[in-house]
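Anyone able to model this chain together with flavin mononucleotide?
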Amino acid sequence: MNDKTDKNQNISRRDALKKMGALTATAAISMSGVEALASTVGSSGEAKKSLKVLLINGSARRKGNTFTLLSEIAGQLNKNSIDSEIVNIGSLPVHGCIACGRCHAEHLGKCVFDDDVCNKLLDKMAECDGIIVGSPVYYGQPAGQVLAVLQRMCYSGGAKLQGKPAAAVTVCRRGGATAAFQTLQMPFQMLNMPIVTSQYWNIGYGTAEGEASQDEEGLQTMRTLADNMAYMLKQFSTGSAKRPERERGKYTNFIR
Ligand SMILES: Cc1cc2nc3c(=O)[nH]c(=O)nc-3n(C[C@H](O)[C@H](O)[C@H](O)COP(=O)(O)O)c2cc1C
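re: yes, here you go
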């Protein structure tokens, strides 16, 4: 497929998605009721941005078990005076990275594919201080659409993610949650993103939608994760230490 055909296909696909109302389909739920960039006045009198965490629901089931776990996190963040927003990845098609390299070559800071949820999430990251990605377990792995979006977000817009505390959450019926959890965390470890932990791996159990609300230990693990995220964000925002300066990146391949 040449570039022209590819471009035309994207345009017609985007139009089709628009007709389906797809571009508004990434329902965002503000848990605090506070506008994303609401400002408060700090003790020193200067305007201070509220701390905010982006929660990505990687399940096509908008009110499924991933949503249940993320809602528990959002509620606990709220108790810690941290804003949050749950964004559903939805059930519409998402692109995988095609390694075209244009995001880097043209310094786009976003993915060349502009017709799915990826760039919207990157825009949101610019106003968020932390990120938690949740996914159902499919065959012992995160759902394909979450991986596709996460890989493109990290590759094209890594600068918006660098240094921000991050965590992964997975939910399953019976098995594979730890493998999926570890997979989701991998990109964070390549982007200098401090990983927030809990009292246990961040996993929950449930099959039918909402069933994870019966997993008391899972819910407690989510609340502890939220407390730890809040603690880390507050420490980072009030601490005196400067973020470390990075050396210019070395990029050596194994085969020369
Ligand atoms: C395609 C597919 C594969 C699944 N694979 C697993 C699996 O490997 N292990 C498991 O315990 N549950 C598996 N499940 C069950 C889901 O992980 C479980 O229902 C989960 O709660 C769904 O989360 P959600 O409600 O947020 O979509 C699978 C479900 C689907 C649809």
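Confidence is low (pLDDT under 50) at residues 1-45.
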